[in-house]
Write a structure and sequence with these properties.
Layout (H helix, E strand, L loop, with lengths): L2 E8 L2 E9 L16 E3 L4 E9 L7 E9 L2 E9 L6 E6 L5 E6 L3 E8 L2 E12 L32 E5 L8 E11 L2 E12 L15 E10 L2 E9 L4 E12 L4 H4 L11 E10 L6 E5 L9 H10 L6 E6 L3 E6 L5 E6 L4 E4 L18 E6 L5 E6 L6 H14 L3 H19 L6 H22 L13 H11 L5 H6 L10 H6 L1 H16 L18 H20 L16 H16 L10 H8 L1 H4 L24 E4 L25 E3 L4 E4 L6 E4 L5 E3 L7 H8 L11 E4 L5
Parallel strand pairs: 2-25
Antiparallel strand pairs: 1-2, 1-24, 3-4, 4-5, 5-6, 7-8, 8-9, 9-10, 11-12, 12-13, 14-15, 15-16, 16-17, 18-19, 19-20, 20-21, 21-22, 23-24, 26-27, 28-29, 28-30
Helix pairs in contact: 3-4, 4-5, 5-10, 6-10, 9-10, 9-11, 10-11
């Protein structure tokens, strides 16, 4: 049996965020100690392995692969891999959507998501290498560079692959090969070149020559234009870790030739040579190694920033030991930067005295068999060997300030991403849950606005510099009239002429826009001490301007196709609802369109908004669904204990409490992407976003091509960029 432990890493202080373990199983199903492997993808998916015995045949083992989303670790998808030997390798591709598995008989399988769901996987391809045991594998890089320092290189040049091999004995040389993959006459050609080998430094030390006989870990650390490897040699009593670098050095010449006059253009001959960079002292026995995944080019400036800020992501590697501890070491100097003890859940920085001196237990100690850093190197996940039965506001402000410093083109590219990041941050605290609702609504608003504007077509073939959608934005921004019909006069209505089906199929999206405007205005007087959803829009001039533009477009389309207009329930038969809402929305927009100097709404506007509930029936908005992920529950200092297959709720806490103030728990459930009501107890199969919790039906009920194109935009990812997971209809 095995369990997953998730640790947060900040300033080299670690604490266990949660432990997720299997339910108790009969001892007959438990397998002997076997190698375990795990891998963490850039999409926050963790894959790990385990073996299960067959109840009828003790010799029959099922080699399982388990895949979880770190925010919903209990929702595990277990695969009987079909491997005939113990799985030795797991490796995610650069996109984080495909997984390779390999075993001791040379069988390799590629796994992919079914219908883009993180809790549904299938084998897409498989192959074998003639029964040779596979001990390591990797994806070829796709050529896209992620450079955090643009002026420096993050990957070595040449596109070659360097392979390291060892026979497991520290007294034997570690061999290195350069592999060149090319295409010749439409056939793949692989050429190999032998590189210099190395002997571990501990084997040349008389005091350690026979102390660490086995090479247990061999990892690559790439830095700029040189290759670095991390080697760990171990015995039953301890380990030692060394860091080596392959560099070009000038070949020294004999003294006889040093006084010879150099030939014009002659260069000193160069050779490749391994040099040891650093080594640790004698350590406890190492059980697992995790390397940072950030492609950071380490310079003196970087090291000074680290020293000044004490912020270490990307500069530390993790070692797990058989005594249950984890150490964070500097990736270059191998100096210890932090220590964590899994038995007590405590951590300490270098130089601090441990709060409790640990006693060596007589029996086997719980320790980690596999470790993986997240792709930001801010979190660490481990698989153990036992498997026992006001900050958000400040961060948002800093993020917004940094975003506003960027040029206009980059701001446009990052506009939706920055909103999604803000929504995720606001999910961390119940105090900012209303802001999370606002940011999710803004993502939907941006998506609907761009879709409706894309329907506009220029009325002449000679298209001007600006698209019809851009002209709508420009005219609405310049015209501050509160009369919607006067604003319409300045627009070319020919560009709005569309066929009936597209407009009618988007009616539910148009209805959402109309309901949202009514809700914002009707709740303007209610925004008090309790921050409610919608509060963030009251001084967001850009979003209010976007709503104003869409009301104008909808008004024009309503003249051509009245069936596409939003439906309001008014108390008066002669009430022009859209005229009234546009008038009030324009007044609110005028107060906040200058974001550097926003003004509070005047008393007259607030009084007019107070009258809205007596003029129109105000809809109850179904805001962002409750986030049932673990991210909202790990803010306390106590670690959470979870179980695979059983959703977690805080003891004594109503899971709906976070948003009970925003909606009734028994209200109609919504398809948040199609803006459709699903009823109180939906029966349709649905999927939910792993990041924001947005829910939508798995199968499309629409037949029109226009609405299907809208749905295709979110087939792989949610509005916020999160992945989808299938949820039972009873949980929708």
């Amino acid at each position: 049996m095995c369990s997953i432990r998730h640790a947060n890493l900040t300033h080299c202080m670690m604490e266990i965020a949660y432990v997720c373990e299997w339910e108790k199983r009969p001892k007959s199903n438990n397998c002997p100690s076997i190698p375990l492997v795990c891998a963490w993808s850039c999409r926050n998916l963790i894959a790990f392995t385990s073996d299960l015995k067959n109840d009828e045949d003790d010799k029959d083992l099922s080699h399982m692969i388990h895949i979880i989303d770190t925010d919903h670790p209990w929702d595990v998808y277990s695969i009987n891999s079909g491997h005939t030997e113990v799985i030795s390798c797991l490796e995610w591709d650069q996109s984080g959507s495909r997984l390779l598995s390999a075993d001791g008989e040379g069988q390799i399988k590629c796994w992919g998501m079914t219908e883009h769901l993180v809790n549904s996987w299938e084998c897409t391809q498989s192959t074998s290498v003639d029964g040779d045991p596979i001990i390591a594998l990797s994806w070829l890089h796709n050529g896209v560079k992620l450079a955090l320092h643009v002026e420096k290189r993050s990957f070595p040049g040449g596109g070659n692959i360097v392979v390291a091999a060892t026979d497991g004995s520290s007294s034997s040389p570690v061999q290195f090969y350069k592999v060149c993959v090319s295409v010749v006459n439409e056939k793949c050609r692989i050429d190999t070149e032998l590189l210099p080998s190395l002997f571990m430094g501990c084997t040349t030390d008389p005091g350690r020559r026979d102390k660490y006989p086995a090479v247990t870990h061999l990892k690559f650390l790439t830095r700029e234009n040189s290759e670095q490897v991390l080697l760990c040699a171990s015995s039953q009593m301890g380990s030692i870790v060394e860091c080596w670098s392959l560099r070009k050095e000038g070949l020294p010449v004999n003294n006889i030739f040093q006084h010879r006059s150099p030939v014009v253009g002659e260069k000193q001959p160069m050779i490749l040579k391994w040099r040891i960079l650093s080594a640790t002292n004698d350590l406890e026995r190492v059980s697992a190694v995790a390397l940072p995944k950030l492609p950071i080019s380490i310079s003196n400036t970087d090291l000074k920033v680290v020293s000044d800020t004490k912020f270490f992501p990307g500069l530390g590697l993790a070692l797990a030991f058989h005594d249950g501890s984890i150490q964070i070491l500097h990736r270059l100097s191998l100096h210890t930067m932090g220590v964590f003890y899994s038995s007590s859940g405590s951590s300490q920085r270098v130089g601090e005295e441990p709060a409790i001196k640990r006693q060596r237990a007589g029996g086997p100690t719980l320790h980690f068999r596999a470790l993986q850093f997240s792709w930001t190197s801010l979190a660490l996940v481990g698989v153990d060997n036992h498997g026992k039965p006001s900050m958000v506001h400040n961060l948002l402000e800093k993020l917004h300030e940094e975003y506003m410093r960027q040029n206009q083109a980059l701001q446009q590219v990052l506009s939706t991403r920055i909103v999604a990041v803000k929504a995720s941050l606001c999910k961390l605290s119940s105090a900012t849950a209303a802001r999370a609702c606002d940011f999710h609504a803004k993502l939907l608003l941006i998506a609907i606005s761009s879709t409706l504007k894309s329907l506009l077509r220029p009325h002449v073939l000679n298209t001007p510099d600006k698209s019809p959608g851009d002209r709508v934005s420009e005219i609405c921004a310049k015209n501050t009239d509160t009369d919607i019909d006067k604003v319409m006069i300045n627009l070319k209505t020919e560009e709005f002429v569309l066929d009936g089906p597209p407009l009618q199929s988007f009616q539910q999206l148009i209805q959402w826009v109309g309901d949202f405007v009514l809700y914002l205005l009707a709740n303007l007087p209610n925004q008090g001490s309790i921050v409610r959803p919608g509060f963030g829009f009251l001084q967001d001039g850009a979003s209010l301007g976007m709503l104003r533009e869409m009301l104008v477009m909808i008004r024009i389309w309503g003249l051509l196709k009245p069936g596409c207009l939003p439906i309001y329930t008014a108390t008066s038969d002669n009430q022009d609802s859209m005229f009234l809402l546009f008038c009030l929305l324009t007044k609110l927009w005028l107060c906040s369109r200058d974001e550097s100097h926003p003004q509070d709404p005047d008393e007259t506007l607030i009084d007019e908004c107070c009258l809205l509930p007596s003029q129109l029936l105000v809809p109850s908005m179904d805001w962002l669904p409750i986030n049932d992920g673990i991210i909202t529950k790990i803010q306390s200092k106590h670690q959470l204990r979870l179980q695979f297959g059983k959703p977690y709720t805080l003891p004594g806490v109503n899971p709906n409490a976070q948003v009970e103030v925003f909606r009734s728990p028994a209200s109609q459930r919504m398809d948040h992407l199609r803006c459709l009501h699903l009823g109180i107890s939906p029966t349709e199969d649905s999927k939910a976003c792993t990041r924001c919790g947005c829910v939508t039906m798995l199968r499309s009920p629409n037949k029109t091509s226009a609405m299907r194109q809208w749905e295709q935009r979110w087939i792989k990812n949610c509005l916020c960029g999160g992945l989808w997971r299938r949820i039972p209809s009873t949980l929708t």
